[in-house]
Input
Amino acid sequence: MDSSRITLDQWRALQTVVDAGGFAQAAARLHRTQSAVSHAVARLQAQLGLQVLRIEGRKAVLTEAGVAVLGRARELLRGAADLEQFARNLERGWEAEIRLVADAALPSALLMEALRRFKPLSQGTRVQLRQVVMSGAEEALEEGGADLVIGTHLPPHCLGDLLLEVEFVAVAHPEHALHRLGRTLTQADLADQVQVVIRDSGARNPRDAGWLVTEDRWTVTSIDNAIAAVQAGLGFSWLPRLQIQALLDQGGLRPLPLEEGQRHRGSLYLLYGHPQQVGPATRLLAEQFRTLAAEFAP
Output
């Protein structure tokens, strides 16, 4: 059997005969003659070498093999319809792909919820997500490698929206030596301890996040790794409250009772990578982030 010779029109005829309950009803739905529909299904069965329909009274009924075949045919027809719609969307300027660059300080729950809300509205547009730290977002803008950027800095001559204020809290494991001192801490107390810092993912002008206060530092490449290191008792760090709130509530991490500098605030900005050429899908995804950020705001 040469399956490539079976056309979408034949599969559509079979599906409609089954759904409508007969050849006459299918012909009416497809705006074709009954003989044309009958010929399409008969030719399909001949090419398959398989009986997929049998007639019971005046109704066309699927055989056991027909049930299995039609299930796959429905997937094929849905895929073809989706492809045609996607092509029409592209013709209207709808993007095939959005390159999203997001700083790791953006709460994962907000990021994933925005993508979840965007998915049923995306009309087939793919999202390519790249997570960065600090200047990595700026580099993506400079290199033209992003359509939508969420970063910690608003570069000169760039227009963007303040999306979210992020609070970073100095924390350590409850059994860490700093907590065992049992008093308010000074910067001098921190000097002899290991600090966990996050490496900037940018290559041109990298900097370390974590408000450097010690020479004894362990550097990791993501906020998730920093959280894991502090939770394992390897050191202390300033970490985003929104991402560690559950650990704070459960007692897995405890804020350090610093005399000063116990909390720092940072900002996350939403920017378009190509402000003069923003497509409808990119604007729609940006709107999901703006809406959710308002819900996340304290």
Notes: The mean pLDDT is 87.
